[in-house]
Write a structure and sequence with these properties.
The chain has about 170 residues and is an alpha/beta fold. The chain has one domain. The chain has 5 helices and 10 strands, in the order ββααββββαββαββα. The strands form 2 sheets. The chain has a 7-stranded mixed beta sheet, with helices on one face. A hairpin with a 3-residue loop joins strand 9 and strand 10. Helix 2 packs parallel to helix 5.
Length: about 170
């Protein structure tokens, strides 16, 4: 599996391509995951509060075996949760561009995770469908109401944090 860095963003996948293509491809995938305005604004607010920046994208085939969500790194199958655990807290969000055939759930302690709840294609992700957002300490925000309410809470926290900095 190839690892490519572009600024604060990291890509894990298989395209054996030139850096210019990988940079454009990485930006395209990030923009596709952030197509929903509620996702974008909530992630921005979380970044303001947490201080985290950057995205990591995993682009690979997802499958399952014995009720575990797996991906292949080119040699062996690994759990999606182990990928998340290895990168949790290093970047703002982990974006999983891989199928989730059984709608498996994940956990993270510090980074936001966005993943599919079913089969996934480039076409479906650019349309904004079938994506779930996991926010540490809150869990899955599966409804527009939960997304809006949490975004407001984070925005309020960000204002308080900025006010405290101003007073110092």
């Amino acid at each position: 599996m190839q690892e490519y860095h572009s600024g604060k963003n990291v890509y894990f996948g298989f395209p054996d391509s030139e850096p210019d293509f990988l940079e454009r491809h990485l930006e395209f995938l990030i923009q596709s995951f952030l197509r929903r305005k509620l996702f974008r604004t909530l992630i921005k607010s979380y970044g303001d509060v947490s201080g985290f920046e950057g995205y990591v994208v995993l682009e690979t085939h997802g499958c399952h075996f014995e009720n575990v969500w797996l991906y292949g790194d080119g040699r062996i199958a690994k759990t999606i949760q182990s990928f998340i655990d290895a990168l949790d807290g290093k970047l703002l969000a982990i974006l999983l561009f891989c199928c989730n055939p059984q709608n498996f759930e994940i956990q993270a302690e510090k980074s936001i995770v966005i993943h599919s709840d079913t089969e996934l294609s480039l076409c479906s992700i650019t349309r904004g469908g079938h994506l779930r957002l996991y926010l540490p300490e809150k869990g899955y925000l599966d409804t527009p109401y939960k997304l809006r309410r949490t975004r407001k809470e984070l925005s309020d926290l960000g204002r308080i944090k900025n006010l405290e900095k101003f007073r110092q």
